[in-house]
UniProtKB/TrEMBL annotation, chains A, B, C, D:
It holds the Pfam family Peptidase_A25. It catalyses: Endopeptidase action with P4 Glu or Asp, P1 preferably Glu > Asp, P1' hydrophobic and P2' Ala. Autoproteolytically processed. The inactive tetrameric zymogen termed p46 autoprocesses to a smaller form termed p41, which is active only during spore germination. This is Germination protease. Initiates the rapid degradation of small, acid-soluble proteins during spore germination. It comes from Sulfobacillus harzensis. One of its GO terms (biological process) is spore germination. It is an enzyme of class 3 (hydrolase). The gene is gpr. Residues 1 form a propeptide. The keyword Protease applies.
Length: 309, 309, 309, 309
């Protein structure tokens, strides 16, 4: 996530990374951080392409508080509306990445199930409704199982036929920070770049590769186990701090050096593991509810919720 | 089905329809009828494009006799091998039409599940196997659910990206004749044309629309209820024939006139109904076994069955 | 269905079958027929055990009119409330018979998915809600797949452990009459008796076998193909009536004789077929919506719909 | 797992825990450890009931080597055959605990899918086969979803109806030791006791509760995240050992004290997390293949594999 990249790059420094603008607000338990990467140098430093990244953090989402769920949904709707063209004539293709069978990776397909699909209704609905309805299509290619074809080739093929004006891609991400696990939604106007995601998406899903703008929505559904290890060591050392030289050694290391040490010692053993909440299945559904409703509201500003629910 | 069209066109005439060549053989309980439509006039008369149609009939497939299943599989393998290029370097995309949820329409997706998908294995398998392995991909776009995009647009998109040398499309058909219900497989080198199929596929899946040759495999999984009605009337009348004028009236009518009368009287009431065997679920699985194995054998002539089972 | 048995037994007679009381009302497009079988002789004549049968008919349910859907739901709620004990302390087990994979048989499991399950919430919900909440459990044993154990043995086992005060069993039925196909709901306080249902349930699901009262809810989701044949012959003959002796023969036969003739001529050929609407999948979902909501309302009269939706 | 309990209890001691007998053998990459707990005192010390526990460890199962898979399957078959009565007349119920939707918990249901179910075939198969066939039933009650009834009550109900002579229960376990994650199968003749398992099974599944002997097969499909933390700290400290006092502190602690410290510091934060391999979905299928085939072979010693595959 862009926000994590920025935290790592900035480290303990008080100043912002050059070429990066950050704005943080907080309301009703949702922390909204907007990160703007606007210079080429910053791009390299952050390891993320230039663009606008918004992260909505709700660290206690796992407690399943309905009010927080609603608050996150409302903020998300607002953020999406800002990124979407006001004109509802343009058609949108919602793509749920990830695969059906592995729960942490199933977020995308589950959001797709909740999307109000309207693109094929043109001839059927009354004119009155038709004029207020944005044409929306939605696919979850990962549910096709083993096809022998890259998921992203399938998407590219569908985009070339369905010719949407905009693609919104939903993906499950791996976070470094435990607090972001199923408590953090990132929206970026840059699309999805190689190497992100739980599974191996391999190719990018971007305006360059698809020919239309791509908004990416990412939710952390797993944490790398190495992050767990790092946090464990940090906290234990902290606890024993006063009389233990160990902490001094760690303290003298920059976070990236610390990570390097841990990677070296534990990497080969931990790299194939992932950490998820025990209630992952229910939490993925909660999050799919939030994303599905926010997307429907943002995509169909001129329909009333009662018209689709 | 081409064979039904020909039976209707030919009616009680002893002669073949002009521009159509028919060859029928029978072996181990499987009746193989090859219909060649080779003239434009015949095309119109038959309501089917020029091409090669092979129908394999096993009227007692519903009895679930393992020997018959094997015999059908073997004949099917032979017929497919004749249509496939000998060179196994060319890649093939198997497309299972139809949708997951409606049993009679689920044949395509169930066959796709059984296909040995190899297209993505290029880098992984040893050279020895790789040289004997045809690249095969397989998709069942109907399982994507409501997408707002025509299934056939999705296929066209996938074809344009995956660039197969040949497409094999599997579809569930509606038969007129009760004997063909889950006892008849049709292979055609003409692709799939509008109006066929259980659901409404609307567009064609042909070399013209996809840019590569399309082999269509169709299996009758439903019968129109009007066909049931027609057969019922015919047989009852037959039974009462000797002393009943009713039969005389029907007898004086051509089959198409008979059908017209029945359509007129029952059409609006029966047109929304379909007839399936009670054991449809098991029979669809049996047929998917047969098609899946025949396809794997025909597609991978140089692999041993033990290498994929 | 009891109503069909009564129609057959009564035939063209103007009088009611002795030992049977029938009351018919109509409101908002829903025809409600209450059949009371109260004498042993009537039991035999009707081929149905003594008890109270209510049939709600909506012949045009297949047109998917939302108002009719709502009207049927409301009437159903009323009828169920009359059969349920007012005291909400007693627990109820909802059983969805039928199996997942065969669409016409999937009604029961789909209704179960929509039931507000509360039996396990005792410790969790606030006292205020708890006092207004009837303990409801719900199972669909057919989704277990091939177990080697009779579905009804599984239910009996679950009943002996969960000890509900009442069982409500939902089943898909085969109708004789085309008008009842997905347009007719039957509620009976007699449980389910051998031989009913689409699949082969074999054993009864009754107060005798389970030890608690059983309310059966049945919906016709298929029609026997022989019924289609009968209707076809009847209507065609009718059409040709004036000048055709055939009609006279049929007219002189009682309906059961007619059926007998048709059975004899077509039976072996048609008996393994079933007739369903083409849109069976959507219609089963519509009906599951209606039954699910009616059951939730009837079972939880003291909860507000907003508390569970 | 019993083997983990024993390792903890024994600690660094060279002697075996009193009242516990342990035998370890190794063959073809599979380490077989038989733990016999035979005294009441040992029962308390180990926190496990008296009985026979066999653990088959294949630490590299995650590498998906077909030879190792076969070796594990063969050893498992042998161990199961020793526990099963030789007489194949006695019927067996295989119970797959765990739920469908959460991958690490789906092992039980996936094994059940692979079991050769024969209990209902009595009337159907020829006498010759019947005499060589043990009646086997199989259920996976977790796939029923939210029923409001405890899974184990459902099993008890089914057992009371189906009256098997033996129950074999398959469950997913949480391991402490990372090496056991999807590389360890435990067979116990003691049934399943409260507190085991990934989900909360709450009640025991034992001869006392079911009235018939229960063989439990457990596979570690998740590791507690606290175990990851412990291992991380241990290994990092080890690495820094020479010049760091931290290690001395940890070294002076007994393993249970170490664990206590870690629990205290990280417990509330880590307790809701679980650790799984990234390829969990494929690995669960691999393991289900192994268990399914071993069970079929052990349960049907007089059938040939070709008769069911």
């Amino acid at each position: 996530m862009a926000i994590e990249a920025r935290d790592i790059v900035r480290g303990d420094a008080k100043e912002e990374v050059p070429g990066v603008r950050v704005k943080e607000t907080q309301d009703q338990g949702v922390v909204v951080t907007e990160v703007e990467i606007y210079e080429e140098a910053a791009e390299k430093l952050m390891g993320k392409p230039r663009g606008h990244y918004v992260t909505l953090d709700v660290p206690t989402f796992k407690d399943r508080d309905p009010d927080l769920k609603r608050a996150l949904m409302a903020k998300l709707t607002d953020q999406l509306k800002e990124l979407l063209p006001e004109d509802i004539q343009g058609s949108v293709l919602v793509v749920g990445l990830g695969n059906w069978n592995a729960t942490p990776d199933a977020l995308g397909p589950r959001v797709v199930e909740r999307i109000l699909v309207t693109r094929h209704l043109g001839q059927v609905v009354p004119d009155d409704i038709k004029q207020r309805m944005r044409p929306v299509a939605a696919v979850a290619p990962g549910v096709l199982g083993t096809t022998g074809i890259e998921t992203l080739d399938i998407i590219r093929g569908i985009v070339s036929e369905a010719k949407p004006d905009l693609v919104i891609a939903i993906d499950a991400l791996a976070a470094r920070n435990l607090d972001r696990l199923l408590g953090s939604v990132q929206i970026a106007d840059t699309g999805i770049h190689p190497g992100s995601g739980v599974g191996n998406r391999r190719q990018g899903l971007t305006e360059e590769s698809l020919g239309v703008p791509v908004i990416a929505i990412g939710v952390c559904t797993v944490v790398q186990s190495i992050s767990i290890a790092q946090e464990a060591i940090h906290q234990i050392a902290n606890q024993l701090a006063d009389d233990v030289a160990f902490y001094d050694i760690l303290k003298q290391m920059a976070p990236t050096e610390q990570r390097g040490l841990i990677d070296e010692v534990l990497g080969s053993r931990f790299s194939e593991l992932m950490v998820t909440p025990k209630e992952i299945d229910m939490l993925i559904d909660d999050m799919a509810d939030v994303l599905g409703e926010a997307l429907n509201r943002a995509l169909q500003p001129r329909l009333d919720a009662s018209e689709w629910a």
